Structures are given as C-alpha cells and as structure tokens.
Amino acid sequence: MTQHLEELLETLVRPALREHGGDVELVRYENGVLRLKMLGRCAGCPGATLTNETLIEGQLKPLLPELREVILVHAVSDSLLAQARAMMTRSQFQS
C-alpha cells in the first residue's frame, strides 16, 4: 500500500505543491489513516489544512476507499532547529 500511496502522491499531489515551493513526505499509513509531513514552503503554511482537505484528500479518497483520514504531522525542520539552538547558545553566553 505504501508504494501505491507514494505513486499517487507523486502524480496527483506533489506537482501542485512543488509549484509553490513545497512537497510532502509520507510518514506512515496505518488502519486507513495516512500521516503526511509538509515540506518546503508548505511546512507551517497557514493554508496547509485547506491544501490537505481540498488537494490531498480530494485526490486520494476517491481512489482509495479504505483511506479514512489524512493527518498532517507538523514538525520543525532540522535546519530550523539547528538555527534555534545556535541562537539560544549565543544568548546564554552573552548574558
């Protein structure tokens, strides 16, 4: 199922996200629940929920009757986390 989901994401979802500088990563599929992480400009975008409802679920659910829900997993990117750590470290030494 994961391979089929990847193929559908690649053909139906990712092209639209890439037009806006974003992407999506399949985190996990289990018991009809698909967990995705938005990447690039889509990560943290205020419109991500709408994108999920209209684009992602709208494209996938008609093709996958067993798909019950798509959940966006929000996570901080490794590069942003490293920047935050560097800022906190500098501010501790400057005090």
In short:
This protein has 95 residues and is of the alpha+beta class.
Q: Could you please describe the fold and organization of this structure?
A:
By secondary structure, this protein is an alpha+beta fold. The chain is 49% helix and 22% strand. The chain is built from 3 helices and 3 strands, in the order αββαβα. It has a 3-stranded mixed sheet, with helices on one face. A hairpin with a 2-residue loop joins strand 1 and strand 2 (33-40). Helix 1 packs across helix 2 (48-60). The protein starts with a helix and ends with a helix.
Rg is 16 Å
Gross morphology = elongated
Low-confidence stretches: none
What distance lies between the first and last C-alpha atoms, to the nearest angstrom?
A: 53 Å
Strand content: 15-25%
Approximate helicity band: 40-55%
Task: Summarize model confidence as the mean pLDDT.
Answer: 86
Number of helices, counting only DSSP H or I runs of 4 residues or more: 3
Name the structural class. Answer: alpha+beta
Main β-sheet description: 3 strands, mixed
Question: How many β-strands, per DSSP?
Answer: 3
Report the order of strands and helices. Answer: HEEHEH
- Main β-sheet, spatial strand arrangement: 1-2-3
Per-chain topology:
Elements: H1 2-18, E1 22-30, E2 33-40, H2 48-60, E3 69-72, H3 78-94
Parallel strand pairs: 2-3
Antiparallel strand pairs: 1-2
Helix pairs in contact: 1-2
